[in-house]
Amino acid sequence: MIYRKHGRSIRWENGTLIRVSESGWAREEGTLFECGPLGEVLRPIDEPESFTPAIPTGVNVERLIVTRGIAEHEYGDARWSEETSRVHVALTRGPLRAIIDSTLEQTGDIATIADALARAEFEERAAPPRLRLAPNVTAALLPALMGVEPPNVRLVQTAGAIDGYGQRVEEDTITFYRPSYRVRPVRMPFDLRLECDVTEIERDRPVAIALLAPVESLVLSVLIRDGERVYPARVRVSRIDAVSNERVWYPYGAGSFGAELML
Q1: Residue 35 contacts by C-beta under 8 Å, 6 or more apart in sequence?
Q2: How far, in Å, CA of 1 to CA of 29, rounded?
Q3: Backbone phi, psi, residue 20, to 5°
Q4: What is the 3-state secondary structure (H, E, C) of 167-196?
Q5: pTM for the full model?
Q6: Can you give the pLDDT at residue 108?
Q7: Mean of per-residue pLDDT scores for the chain
Q8: How does pLDDT run across 102-134, given as a tens digit for each residue?
Q9: Which residues of 149-181 are buried (b: 16+ CB within 10 A; e: fewer)?
Q10: How do residues 227-247 score in pLDDT, each as one tens digit?
Q11: Measured CA angle at 255 (ends 252, 260), to 5 deg
Q12: What average pLDDT does this structure show over 243-257?
């Protein structure tokens, strides 16, 4: 069958507005994959508002990208559409670089992280033995937990989305993510969430509030807020004590629900 996509996005990147439109088709037959443009025009979309986060003195905005997009898909008899909004921010101070990925509806993390970064020590310290992870950090961790999740937790695909072949996503179905018509869909779970029988969070534990580097296996390079002190540390996730029931969606892979958790 032929897959068709019509998409348009508008990106506000470090003060420059970039408009992108694409329409294309793709076909798979066994190991064969081919694709090409369609040249059709999609309906217009609203431009994303310019977004300037409140950043304390001494903290620099190295990169700021705000994107809004729409796409319409067709595969056989299946037709579906989606709308997206995303924010990517990299904040720096001295040798530290905090990475934040969120949506236009969920930008509160940026101010919290910027404030902590302004007060952070530069020298890496040992992470405390008992720690919380903020939802934005957990969301980035979930894809790395696939197949190796610690005891006491369950990594679950959330039902409701439509995958790259037009199939409705259920918790127990095999799903495929199609980031573009130019590439073959890849097997990937949609809207991951982490479940645990223990859901009560101890608020007095120190908290890892931001990533300082992309997740590498189960080792996290994070910015930790421990009372009045803020410092960088590396954390290896070998156990998870509790996971909150309050979840926030973040744009990692085919979607990831971040929740506060305790290590």
Answers
A1: 24, 25, 26, 27, 181, 182
A2: 9
A3: -130, 130
A4: CECCCCCCCEECCCCCCCCEECCCCEEEEE
A5: 0.89
A6: 83
A7: 91
A8: 998 888 889 999 999 999 999 999 999 999 999
A9: bbeebebbbbeebbbbbbeebeeeeebebbeeb
A10: 999 999 999 998 999 999 999
A11: 80
A12: 95
Longest dimension (CA), the chain: 59
At 128, list the tokens. 């405390």
| Amino acid present at 202 | E
